[in-house]
Amino acid sequence: MRAVLRIPFLLALFVSIGAGPALAEVPTIKVEARTLASSRPAEATIEAVRQATLAAQVPGRIVALNVDAGDRVAKGQVLLRIDSAEASQAVSGAEAGVAQAQANQINAKAAYERTKSLVERRFVSQAALDQARAAYDAAEAQLRAAQAGRGQASTAQGYAAVASPMTGLVAARHVEAGEMAQPGRQLVTVYDPTAMRAVADVPQQRVAALAGTKLAARVELPESGRWLDAASVTVLPAADPRTHTVQVRVDLPPNTEGLVPGMFARVHFMAGEGARVTVPATAILRRGELTGVYVADGKGGFALRQIRAGEPQADGSIEVLAGVTGGETIALDPVQAAIVGRAARPPRAVAER
Prior knowledge:
This protein is of the alpha+beta class. It has helices at residues 9-17, 19-25, 85-120, 126-158, 204-210, 334-344; strands at 4-6, 28-30, 33-48, 51-55, 60-65, 72-73, 78-82, 161-163, 168-173, 180-181, 186-191, 196-203, 217-221, 226-229, 232-239, 245-251, 264-280, 285-287, 290-296, 302-306, 308-312, 317-322, 329-331, 350-352.
């Protein structure tokens, strides 16, 4: 029995007349090495420059809760109120203490004036005058102490109304109406969204490598693909003894929208310039652990080539560390290039018995 080799008519027709037009429809780009600023990336977290977590200063039940997370607040706006009955009683007690001290001070002053007059007429001794003077001074000191206590009680009464220290947003509300507030318990967290920064913990070896250059950085927001130029970079003069990292604060431009505390970011510290090969991000094919691009083979098709991708760039391209060199042509649409690549291969023979 002999084997008969046949090529299906439709497949032969597609290869002969379809491969050329398909290749022309695949958008391509010629890869060129270009001079770019090299960078050292570090993972970071977005935080507010001005943020305050307000805590209770007096005990009492929360009787009014005026805000919730996400609300805009103004500086001085009352966020919540704590029952001030106890504080009011303390103020009343302090007022009574001041009244008593004033009465004692008046009596002591009158006694001192009488004793002074008697001494001038030689009816009493100088020792009696000294004693009256001491009683008068003590009464005045008691009056000042009572007045200070009244001021302290009035101040504590003012702590029952918790006001915002800044204009901004409520990041979190830690209590509910009706709960009991105790001194030190967290109540509300407020932050100013107009001043944000990215905070990165950088290994001390990397900080030492950047010490000889003027620190400049760009902040990447991977979720949205945005890039922001740093307004300033501050390296804190201390390292964490557990992780041996140094905290670097990268201030972002004022009034940057779309940022909230806790967001993930990536800081790219600029460290000179160099020639590097980059390809558009859309040209890269990722399948599991494979990362590659389709390179034109010069015969009307494309061949998949594995690459080692580097860091993303601000223009949306990806640095290629290995796998593609300058001067080669790659496909911008990996899916269409794969179709053309399969169509350009020689058809396999079909054996029939």
